[in-house]
Amino acid sequence: MTEIRFHEMADGRRIAHRFAPGQGPTLVFLPGYMSDMSGSKATALFEMAVHTGRACLLVDYSGCGASDGDFADGTLSRWRDEVVAVIEAAALDKVVLIGSSMGGWLMLMVADALPDKVHSMIGIAAAPDFTDWGIAQMDKGLLADGETIYEDNPYGPEPTPTHPAFWADGQANLQLEAPIEFYGPVRLLHGQRDEDVPFDLSLRLCEMLRSDDVQVTFIKDGDHRLSRETDIAVLMRTVADLLLARDPES
Predict the structure, then answer these.
(1) Is 127 within 8 Å of 134 (Cβ atoms)?
(2) Which UniProt keywords apply (predicted)?
């Protein structure tokens, strides 16, 4: 792994990232909620890119991993702006956005912010709009009143918080209520034993994307994380196949 670099935002917070130069388009991995660039999928992607001479960028959102900030201040809009800033600071021409879980929501927002730079997208159990469908109505009332809610975390000892600012920003950035104006290649991977994000959400996302080049792959025994060796192998094959796709602007 290359050394961690930092991009300084206008307010002084430093956004940690790793960059491997190489052939483009640059693979950009967007982690899930409360995750960072040290995860198994991000690490495998980066190692594959280095081994094959592909450009790759990993990013830690503020309040996550090695980046500055408090997680409680994090919102989708804030994290989108950080990802956009790092991409622009690196002067990347074309990128492939690879979003895991919440990162699959964020990639849609980044693609909207950088329409001329995004070559294609890969969603891994993409979870757009989970502040709407993934939170009980009674909890939404608490969030609307400014309270943080906590849920059991199947992946660690600490409960998972949802902060009011994150929820409100999510509700302001719902993606599945209207057609999504993206026309490049999209690949969606989803485990059918995902207990966190219903696998039919990938079908809904497929329906809402304007692109005609969208493929959905279900992994029948796959869970939400899709981090087994066999799952990561599917991701690597998907990336390799997508890089052969014709640039939609060429």
Answers:
(1) yes
(2) Hydrolase, Transit peptide
Query: Can you give the CATH number for the domain in which 32 is found?
Result: 3.40.50.1820
CA 245 to chain centre: 21
Q: How many domains would you assign to the chain?
A: 1
User: Is residue 116 annotated as part of the catalytic site, yes or no?
Assistant: no
Mean pLDDT calculated for residue range 82-109: 98
CA distance 109 to 102: 11
pLDDT tens-digit profile of 166-180? 999 999 999 999 999
Active-site annotation holder among 35, 101, 120, 202: 101
**Strand order from edge to edge, sheet including 14-20:** 5-8, 14-20, 54-59, 23-30, 95-100, 118-124, 186-191, 214-219
Q: What are phi and psi of 57, to 5 degrees?
A: -130, 125
CB 100 within 8 A of CB 75: no
205: its two tokens? 């996302």
**Is the residue at 248 inside a domain?**
no
Whether the predicted model's global pTM rises above the 0.85 cut: yes
Is the preceding omega at residue 31 within 30 degrees of 0, hence cis?
no
Helix pair 229-243, 40-52: axis angle to 10 deg: 40
Q: 194 an active-site residue?
A: yes
Question: At 245, is the pLDDT very low, low, confident or very high (cuts 50, 70, 90)?
Answer: low
The parent domain of residue 116 ranges over 5-130+179-243
Using one digit for the tens of pLDDT, what is the confidence trace for 112-169?
999 999 999 999 999 999 999 999 998 999 999 999 999 988 888 889 999 999 999 9
Catalytic residue among 17, 119, 163, 224: 224
66-86: pLDDT as tens digits: 999 999 999 999 999 999 999
Annotated catalytic, 224?
Answer: yes
